[in-house]
Amino acid sequence: MQKWIFYALAACYLSACAPARFVEPLKKGEQVLTGHFGGPVAKVPGIGAIPIPFTSIGYGRGLTDNTTIMGALQTTSLAFGVGQFELGASQRIWSNDRMGVSGQVNVNFLLDFYTGANRIWPQLDANYYFKYGRQWKPEHLDHMCSVYHRNYNFFYSGISNWFDFYRIESQGRPNEQLWIPNFQIGHQWIRPKWSYQAELKILAPIYSNENIVVPYPSLLQNRGAMGLYFGITYHL
């Protein structure tokens, strides 16, 4: 049973348990705490179609104005004795006052505390974002200092690529999903202390969702699944 839970969580983890992180990299020295809720939308008998309630907590720091390093822990899986950890970095590739393109490289770890079973998956993301609102426009108080507003919003869209190089899945089946793409579109509300995020994902759109244990509604009918995610960020 414990081994089955491990592989079930692994399958869900590869479906993306969190929204895109640090689409717009932090400023140098800026630190934040993050929390996320949501996951793939599944049909639950007697309830209906709801997002699987995965939760995570994380930390990010602006290494430079263009590079953010981060780490996260998937807290839901801890209840089943499985640790899911994520380490990565977000890099600003191009930007101006209104929009930008960023990329992210992550390494995702899964560890069963009871059996010692473990897996590692690399992840490569790319996102485009468009800002509106007051943004980081300076107000000059005098010649020596200025105040920056942090009340703005942005839309974003992108692709998240998971790579699974393990040849065998659960129950000894061959792994046929070496590359798992996910497409995302979302919105963030950036505020001085608390920021918020909502995101819709199209998960694994190149793979069939038929004849599997959990029924996943999809915008593509018999392919992939849909995910809904919500996030909150506290600026330290």
CATH fold type: Porin
Give the H and E element order. Answer: HEEEEEEEEEEEEE
Q: What class would the helix/strand composition place it in? A: mainly beta
Note the beta-strand portion: over 45%
> Which second-level CATH architecture applies?
Beta Barrel
Question: Which helices and strands appear, and what pairs or packs with what?
Answer:
Blueprint: H1 2-14, E1 31-44, E2 48-51, E3 55-62, E4 67-74, E5 82-95, E6 99-112, E7 118-133, E8 138-140, E9 146-148, E10 152-163, E11 179-190, E12 194-208, E13 223-235
Task: Please give a structural write-up.
This protein is mainly beta. The protein has one domain (2-235): Porin (Beta Barrel), CATH 2.40.160. The chain is 6% helix and 58% strand. The chain has 1 helix and 13 strands. The strands form 2 sheets. It has a 10-stranded antiparallel barrel. The chain has a two-stranded antiparallel ribbon with strand order 8-9. The longest helix has 13 residues, at 2-14. The model is unreliable at 1-7 (pLDDT under 50).
What can be said about this structure in brief?
The protein has one helix and 13 strands. It is mostly beta strands and 236 residues long. The chain has a single domain (2-235), classed as Beta Barrel (Porin), CATH 2.40.160.
